[in-house]
Amino acid sequence: MKDQVVLITGASAGIGAALAREYARRGASVVLTARRTDKLEALAAELRQSGTRALVVAADVTRDGDLEQAVARTLAEFGRLDVVLANAGFGINGTLAKVSLDDVRRQLETNVFGVLRTFYATKDALTQSRGCLGILGSVAGYISVPGTVAYSMSKYAVRALAEGLRAELRGLGISVTHIAPGFIESEIRHIDNAGQLHPHSKDPAPKMLVMPAPKAARQIVSAVAARRRELVVTGHGKVAVWLARHMSWLVSTVLGSSGKKWEGN
């Protein structure tokens, strides 16, 4: 990948940072975008020590114009763009009876419209390179669990977006890979609904099910490079998606059996 240029949104931590390290390990040049430029600069400095060309661009996927500026700087610096990972996202927690409409709106603005902004900003450059677009969805885009419905709404939408875009872009030579992770080592489960990070909070995911971010990144990078249609990451994620596809009645029964827990919440 030494001649390829990769742009990653949400690259400041978690899966995004792990993807940057993996692409750098394979020889690609990387463009790191996120809101927290201090973390991006630290990551870029780390990658440059190993000889990687790394460009930092502050960008908020919820703000019009930021990603277009990031692409313009990418083309000015490297002259091309081959791979885009639409990774930026977060999760709203709480039953729909408890979360506000503004909470849900912010969820969709980042997780859905953020992906759309990424696509619109990069489509011309990817057409030129006949490149690859990786869209980070979730296993939650197959199963909507009580207490995380707003997040699942956004990830169901992202899955539909990936499926439709794949067909629309085939003639342009752009591949679209939908990536559906299960539990991955990440900050996402430590960020509250107001966007505040609580690094020492208890991770609600069972520790034995959480995949290290570098391992997930290796699988994702290989899947995008192979222009795969979809990648489900983690063993439990694969089981959940299989059940959702082939035994939806069982999933519905299991979720319904916990209905009393959520009544009035």
Short description:
The chain has ten helices and seven strands. It has 265 residues and is of the alpha/beta class. A seven-stranded parallel β-sheet has the order 3-2-1-4-5-6-7, with helices on both faces.
Short key terms for the protein model shown above:
265 residues; Rossmann fold; single chain; alpha/beta; 47% helix; 7-stranded parallel beta sheet
Number of strands: 7
| The first-level CATH class name | Alpha Beta
Element pattern in H and E: EHEHEHEHHEHEHEHHH
Strand content: 5-15%
**What CATH architecture would you give?**
3-Layer(aba) Sandwich
Low-confidence stretches: none
What is the distance, rounded to the nearest whole angstrom, between the alpha carbons of the first and last residues? 50 Å
Approximate helicity band: 40-55%
As a whole number of angstroms, the C-alpha radius of gyration is 18 Å
Tally of separate helices: 10
What's the shape?
A: globular
Number of domains: 1
Describe the sheet with the most strands: 7 strands, parallel
Mean pLDDT: 91
Specify the CATH homologous superfamily.
NAD(P)-binding Rossmann-like Domain
Strand arrangement, largest sheet?
A: 3-2-1-4-5-6-7
Q: Predict the CATH topology.
A: Rossmann fold
Structural class: alpha/beta
